[in-house]
Every structure is written in C-alpha cells, then in structure tokens.
Design brief:
This protein is mostly helical. The protein is built from 12 helices and 2 strands. It has helices at 2-34, 49-78, 83-93, 105-123, 136-173, 180-194, 198-212, 217-239, 246-260, 268-273, 275-295, 316-337; strands spanning 38-40, 43-45.
C-alpha cells in the first residue's frame, strides 16, 4: 500500500511540476492587471487597454493550468500516448457541463488524469496486429481513451455532481437565519477545499446572491477566506524553505501575489502535490479568518476578495486582522504537518 501511495504521489508531482509555470505566468499577469483595476459589479474591473491584454495573457495561463495538470499526471503513468487524453480530461473537468454548468475543477482533473493514465496504460498492453502498431499512439489510443474517460465523466459523474452542488446551495440558504459563526466555518471550508472548483463556486455564488438582497457580511466572510490559502502557502514557503522544492518556492512567490488580489487558485500547486497535508491546513486557515470576519461583522461591497478590495470594506482593521490570522494559521499548520523536502525531485525536461 505504501508503494502504491508513493507511485500516486509521483504521478501527481509529474502533473504539478509542469503546471507550476502556467500558474506563475497566469497569476503574476492577472495580479498585475487587476492591481490597476477597481471594484465593480462583477469583481475587479480592468479598463486600461494595455492591462486588459496583460489580463488576457494571464487568463490564458490559468485556462491551461488544469488541462496541463491532468495531462502530465496521465503522462507520468503511461508516457506520451497519455498526454493528450489527460489534457482533454483536465479541460473537460474544468468546463461547465449541463444545465447546472457543473465543473469538477482541479480535483476532477486529478481524478480524470489518473483515470486517463491507467486507461492508456491498459490499452498499451493490448495485443494488436503488426499493421496497427504504428497508428496505436496517434489514432487508436487517443480515440479509445478519450471516449472511455470523457464519456464516463459526462454521462456518469457530471450530473450527480450538479445535483450535489444544488443541494449545497439549498443547504446554505437554509442556514442564513442560524449561527453566523457556523456558517462562516462552513463557507471557509468550502472556499478552500477545491480552490476555485465547484464547491468554492457554490459558496461564492451564494454570497453573490445575498449581495443582490443587500446582505454584504457573507461576501466579507468569503473575501477573507478566498485569499488566505494562497497567502498562507506563500508565507509557509518563506517560513521554512527546507520543506519545499525550488519550484514550490517560486510558486510561493506567485501565490503571494495571487492572494493579494483574491485568487485562491494560487494554492493549487501545493494542494495537488500534497493534498492530505495542504487541503486540511488551508481549510482551517480560511475558516479561522472567516469566523473572525463574521464576529466583527465585516461587510464587503464588491463581489471579490483579498486585500485589493480593502477600499470597499467596512471594519477594515478587522478585515486585515482576519486575513493575517487566517494566513498565519495556514502557514504554521501546513509547515507543522509537512516533512523536510529531500532534494529528489529534479526538474524534468519536456520529452
């Protein structure tokens, strides 16, 4: 069992190592663009034409991030023939599906990337006539593997996920008259759990809906929880450099920039590489900050988060305190759980 877990970790690290440059480029470009914007009805709005182009490039990096993760997880399992099936699986996992427009996010990309890799590995064991061998990696393997993985997700997994997301939203609506602290804990957990994925989106859309009704405290809670995962992971890489690879330290710098402008996805490289330690840590850190925001009745009048929306926050001092505490809790907890990094991860060259 220990050997199996090590293999899975190696597959995940294969995906993460190739994904990090896309995260860094996307995060830095988006952060630079949004830093020149101003809060609007749909979040931070960039109006400068040049910075709009910078934002476009950053969004392109983020759009590629999840497919790259899925593709190179599959690549780590079954080599080059698995690369495109894994990327397609990652793209589909991160795309809205059906009437409910459900997405599986980066966690879905991990699962589908593993699935694609093992499907391709299985297909490679098939005994085929010599005449078919030249077309196996460019024709048969991609078509068969994408059909199996993609259609399994689209027809068997996507709809149940959509129903689950709807149930979550209804459950949150039923809690608005209950304990604000309990609601803050749940929202903090949801925001950090999949870092921009479907669970995160349910919490955000819930807050957006309440803003339309003139309730801004929930958006204040969300704004705090959104930024503590990347800020916490960025701080963690600075506090204990021995526990992170060179690539993770670079990703930590990008995570700090992304956290500043409220992009939770900055924590994804860390969560993908070490989910059992990172995800609980960022969930607890986000929930801690969210509870402080709830107790202080922090109101946020922009549908966005992070320090960048400070000008439109009520009780700004408590907003900053909540972010600082949540960030610190995340960093200290994850570093307490992680072991020192043995320098065994070389920078792979693209094959």
């Amino acid at each position: 069992m220990k050997e199996v877990l090590k293999q899975v970790r190696d597959y995940l690290m294969s995906g993460v190592s190739y994904m990090i440059p896309a995260v860094v480029v996307g995060g830095i470009f988006i952060a630079a663009a949004l830093a020149t914007g101003s809060p609007g009805e749909s979040g931070m709005e960039v109006t400068n034409p040049f910075m709009e182009n910078i934002l476009l490039l950053g969004v392109a990096g983020f759009t590629m991030m999840v497919p790259i993760l899925g593709g190179y997880i599959a690549y780590g399992i079954a080599g080059k023939p698995a690369l495109v099936p894994g990327m397609i699986a990652g793209y589909v996992a991160n795309s809205p599906i059906g009437e409910s427009e459900v997405t599986a996010g980066f966690l879905g990309a991990i699962i589908l990337g593993l699935f694609a890799g093992f499907v391709v590995k299985w297909i490679k064991t098939w005994k085929v006539p010599n005449i078919l061998r030249p077309v196996m990696p460019i024709f048969i393997i991609p078509i068969v593997s994408v059909s199996i993985v993609g259609l399994t997700y689209l027809y068997l997994l996507a709809q149940p996920m959509g129903m689950m997301m709807t149930s979550m939203t209804e459950g949150l609506l039923g809690m608005t008259d209950g304990s604000l602290v309990l609601l803050a804990i749940i929202l903090g957990f949801m925001i950090a759990f999949d870092m921009g994925g479907p669970v995160n989106k349910v919490a955000c859309l819930f807050a957006f809906g309440l803003m339309a009704e003139g309730v801004y405290t929930i958006m204040g809670i969300i704004a705090i929880a959104i930024c503590t995962p990347p800020l916490g992971m960025g701080l963690a890489t600075l506090l204990n450099k021995k526990k992170y690879s060179a690539q993770e330290k670079e990703a930590g710098k990008a995570a700090l920039a992304m956290g500043t402008i409220g992009i939770t996805e900055g924590a994804i490289p860390f969560a993908a590489a070490d989910p059992l330690r990172v995800i609980p840590s960022i969930m607890i850190g986000s929930a801690t900050g969210a509870v402080i925001g709830a107790l202080a009745v922090v109101n946020n009048y922009a549908p966005h988060g992070g320090p960048i929306v400070l000008p439109v926050i009520d009780n700004r001092l408590w907003y900053v305190i909540a972010i600082v505490v949540g960030t610190t809790v995340t960093a200290l907890l994850v570093n307490a759980l992680k072991k020192e990094k043995s320098n065994d991860l070389s920078n792979e060259e693209a094959a």
